[in-house]
Amino acid sequence: MEEQKKKDFNPSEYDYLGDEQITINAGLYKELRSTVRYFLQKNTKPYFPQKYKYIHTETGKDIKKLTDKNRDKARLVVDIEGTKNSKPTIYRTEEGQSLLYLDEYMESIHFKNIEEGIAKHISELKK
After folding, report:
1. 3-class DSSP assignment, residue 63
2. CA 78 to CA 83: how far, in whole Å?
3. Considering the entire predicted model, what is its pTM?
4. Residue 76: enclosing H or E segment and its boundaries?
5. Distance of alpha carbon 52 from alpha carbon 121, whole angstroms
6. Other C-beta atoms within 10 Å of 99: how many?
7. pLDDT (tens digit, 0 to 9) for every residue of the chain, 127 residues total?
Protein backbone atom coordinates (compact mmCIF):
# COMPACT_ATOMS: atom_id res chain seq x y z
CA MET A 1 0.00 0.00 0.00
CA GLU A 2 2.85 2.43 0.84
CA GLU A 3 4.33 1.82 -2.62
CA GLN A 4 0.99 2.68 -4.25
CA LYS A 5 0.80 5.95 -2.27
CA LYS A 6 4.24 7.00 -3.54
CA LYS A 7 3.22 6.17 -7.10
CA ASP A 8 0.02 8.23 -6.88
CA PHE A 9 1.63 11.13 -5.02
CA ASN A 10 1.26 14.41 -6.94
CA PRO A 11 3.00 17.42 -5.30
CA SER A 12 0.97 19.87 -7.39
CA GLU A 13 -2.12 18.79 -5.42
CA TYR A 14 -0.64 20.47 -2.32
CA ASP A 15 -0.58 24.18 -1.58
CA TYR A 16 -0.29 26.76 1.20
CA LEU A 17 -2.87 28.96 2.89
CA GLY A 18 -0.44 31.87 2.60
CA ASP A 19 0.52 32.60 6.20
CA GLU A 20 2.81 29.61 6.78
CA GLN A 21 6.48 30.26 7.42
CA ILE A 22 8.85 28.46 5.09
CA THR A 23 12.63 28.56 5.20
CA ILE A 24 15.17 28.67 2.40
CA ASN A 25 18.92 29.07 2.70
CA ALA A 26 20.64 32.34 1.82
CA GLY A 27 22.21 30.89 -1.33
CA LEU A 28 18.82 30.04 -2.79
CA TYR A 29 17.41 33.43 -1.69
CA LYS A 30 20.26 35.26 -3.47
CA GLU A 31 19.80 33.15 -6.61
CA LEU A 32 16.05 33.79 -6.66
CA ARG A 33 16.58 37.52 -6.15
CA SER A 34 19.17 37.64 -8.91
CA THR A 35 16.84 35.77 -11.27
CA VAL A 36 13.91 38.08 -10.45
CA ARG A 37 16.07 41.14 -11.15
CA TYR A 38 17.41 39.66 -14.39
CA PHE A 39 13.91 39.04 -15.75
CA LEU A 40 12.67 42.37 -14.38
CA GLN A 41 15.38 44.08 -16.42
CA LYS A 42 14.43 42.05 -19.50
CA ASN A 43 10.79 43.13 -19.08
CA THR A 44 11.56 46.81 -18.48
CA LYS A 45 12.48 49.13 -21.33
CA PRO A 46 13.12 52.87 -21.48
CA TYR A 47 11.55 54.66 -24.43
CA PHE A 48 12.56 58.13 -25.49
CA PRO A 49 9.65 60.10 -26.92
CA GLN A 50 10.14 61.93 -30.19
CA LYS A 51 9.46 65.66 -29.84
CA TYR A 52 7.93 67.88 -32.51
CA LYS A 53 7.75 71.61 -33.09
CA TYR A 54 6.33 74.03 -35.62
CA ILE A 55 8.58 76.21 -37.76
CA HIS A 56 7.65 79.15 -39.95
CA THR A 57 7.98 78.05 -43.58
CA GLU A 58 9.29 81.46 -44.73
CA THR A 59 11.66 82.36 -41.91
CA GLY A 60 12.62 78.91 -40.61
CA LYS A 61 12.16 80.17 -37.04
CA ASP A 62 10.33 78.28 -34.34
CA ILE A 63 6.68 79.09 -33.83
CA LYS A 64 6.09 79.20 -30.09
CA LYS A 65 2.31 79.07 -30.28
CA LEU A 66 0.23 77.92 -33.21
CA THR A 67 -2.62 80.33 -33.98
CA ASP A 68 -5.09 80.91 -36.78
CA LYS A 69 -2.83 83.73 -38.04
CA ASN A 70 0.31 81.61 -38.43
CA ARG A 71 -1.23 78.21 -39.12
CA ASP A 72 -0.94 78.51 -42.94
CA LYS A 73 2.81 79.25 -42.65
CA ALA A 74 3.53 76.54 -40.05
CA ARG A 75 5.19 73.24 -40.70
CA LEU A 76 5.41 70.40 -38.18
CA VAL A 77 8.97 69.00 -37.93
CA VAL A 78 10.91 66.72 -35.60
CA ASP A 79 12.53 68.73 -32.83
CA ILE A 80 16.01 67.16 -32.90
CA GLU A 81 17.31 68.93 -29.79
CA GLY A 82 14.09 68.29 -27.89
CA THR A 83 14.18 64.63 -28.88
CA LYS A 84 17.85 64.25 -27.89
CA ASN A 85 17.18 65.85 -24.51
CA SER A 86 13.92 64.06 -23.79
CA LYS A 87 13.62 62.07 -20.60
CA PRO A 88 12.87 58.38 -21.00
CA THR A 89 9.55 56.86 -20.11
CA ILE A 90 9.83 53.44 -18.50
CA TYR A 91 7.56 50.73 -19.81
CA ARG A 92 7.14 47.30 -18.26
CA THR A 93 5.37 44.26 -19.56
CA GLU A 94 2.67 42.71 -17.40
CA GLU A 95 5.22 40.15 -16.26
CA GLY A 96 7.68 42.95 -15.50
CA GLN A 97 5.13 44.63 -13.27
CA SER A 98 4.62 41.38 -11.33
CA LEU A 99 8.38 40.96 -11.05
CA LEU A 100 8.68 44.50 -9.71
CA TYR A 101 6.27 43.64 -6.87
CA LEU A 102 8.17 40.42 -6.19
CA ASP A 103 11.49 42.27 -6.14
CA GLU A 104 10.06 44.81 -3.70
CA TYR A 105 8.84 42.00 -1.45
CA MET A 106 12.24 40.29 -1.56
CA GLU A 107 13.88 43.62 -0.71
CA SER A 108 11.66 43.90 2.39
CA ILE A 109 12.79 40.41 3.45
CA HIS A 110 16.40 41.51 3.02
CA PHE A 111 15.88 44.64 5.17
CA LYS A 112 14.18 42.56 7.86
CA ASN A 113 17.13 40.16 7.84
CA ILE A 114 19.54 43.12 8.20
CA GLU A 115 17.57 44.45 11.19
CA GLU A 116 17.56 41.01 12.81
CA GLY A 117 21.30 40.52 12.27
CA ILE A 118 20.84 37.59 9.89
CA ALA A 119 22.34 39.46 6.93
CA LYS A 120 25.84 40.68 7.71
CA HIS A 121 27.74 43.67 6.35
CA ILE A 122 30.11 42.55 3.58
CA SER A 123 33.13 43.70 5.61
CA GLU A 124 32.18 41.10 8.26
CA LEU A 125 31.78 38.35 5.67
CA LYS A 126 35.32 38.86 4.35
CA LYS A 127 36.86 37.98 7.75
Report:
1. strand
2. 8
3. 0.65
4. strand 74-78
5. 50
6. 22
7. 466 567 788 889 999 999 999 999 999 999 999 999 999 999 999 999 999 999 999 898 999 988 888 889 999 999 999 999 999 999 999 999 999 999 999 999 999 999 999 999 999 888 7
